[in-house]
Specification:
three-stranded antiparallel sheet, 34% helix, 87 residues, 4 helices, 5 strands, alpha+beta, two-stranded antiparallel ribbon
């Protein structure tokens, strides 16, 4: 799974991401961007193309290792608790 963050202050609505990865990004009106913050691995290549095509570099991607963050795995419970306390 991919965790996406779009800096909406930086985004200028060029819509290159929506064109290249329409299952993840969509334009709402002229400048409003909607996106799935947890994109599936099946969209990895399209998301990478969208990130590269963004003229203002507003898209950040972090790969999630679900096994490492699952509460039932060593270190996963502590990591999940730390993330819960942050937000």
């Amino acid at each position: 799974m991919l965790r996406l963050v779009v800096d909406l202050n930086r985004c200028q609505g060029y819509a290159q991401c929506a064109f290249l990865a329409p299952d993840v990004f969509a334009m709402h009106g002229d400048e409003g961007l909607l996106y799935d913050p947890q994109a599936q691995d099946a969209h990895r290549e399209r998301v990478a193309q969208a990130v590269a095509a963004c003229p203002v570099q507003a898209i950040l991607v972090d790969e999630l290792d679900m096994a490492a963050t699952a509460p039932g795995t060593p270190g996963g419970a502590a990591r999940a608790a730390a993330e819960a306390s942050d937000g």
